[in-house]
TrEMBL record:
Coiled coil: none annotated. Residues 6-153 form the N-acetyltransferase domain. GO terms for molecular function: acyltransferase activity, transferring groups other than amino-acyl groups. This is Ribosomal protein S18 acetylase RimI-like enzyme. GO terms for cellular component: ribosome. The keyword Transmembrane helix does not apply. PANTHER family: AMINOALKYLPHOSPHONATE N-ACETYLTRANSFERASE-RELATED-RELATED.
């Protein structure tokens, strides 16, 4: 196998520890937020336990896991179809800027098209200009919605 070979696959429950660790790293890097390890492990496992919630993809470089993303679904009555939301994106620092996210995105896009989804969405921190440039470079457009939330106990 040539060096720097990228392979994207659907994650398996055996990947859960990597995914949880990457999610914790991403939360710290992007928001300086420490996540509760127990809650995070249960949250990752919940995707494998209930596939209706979504799925993870894992990217491997030369057979070594180097990143992941999660896809969840949002039903659009306006379009009579699902939007696929890309979330929990993480690429290990040593593999960044080597096309890992691009390969995962291409994989998700092909899967979404094959499943009849109406679109792909994601959200990004307002200050994360590097990620925003990456998404624009892949043909995504900034939409005109703001995101609001109300956390519940």
């Amino acid at each position: 196998m040539p060096l720097n070979t990228l392979y994207v696959r659907r994650a398996e429950s055996a990947d859960a520890a990597h995914i949880a660790a990457w999610n914790a790293a991403m939360a710290w890097e992007t928001e300086a937020k420490r996540l509760d390890d127990d809650v995070l492990a249960k949250g990752v496992a919940a995707i494998f336990d209930e596939p209706r919630r979504g799925f993870y993809l894992v990217a491997e470089m030369d057979g070594v896991p180097v990143g992941c993303l999660m896809v969840t679904y949002e039903w659009s009555d306006w379009r009579n179809g699902d939007f696929w939301w890309i979330q929990s994106v993480y690429v290990v620092p040593a593999a960044r800027r080597s096309g890992v996210f691009r390969e995962m995105y291409v994989h998700v896009k092909a899967m979404a098209e094959g499943a009849g989804a109406v679109g792909i969405r994601l959200y990004v921190e307002t200050e994360n200009e590097r990620a925003q440039a990456t998404y624009v470079g892949l043909g995504m457009e900034r939409c005109h919605y703001y995101m609001y939330e109300a956390m519940l106990d």
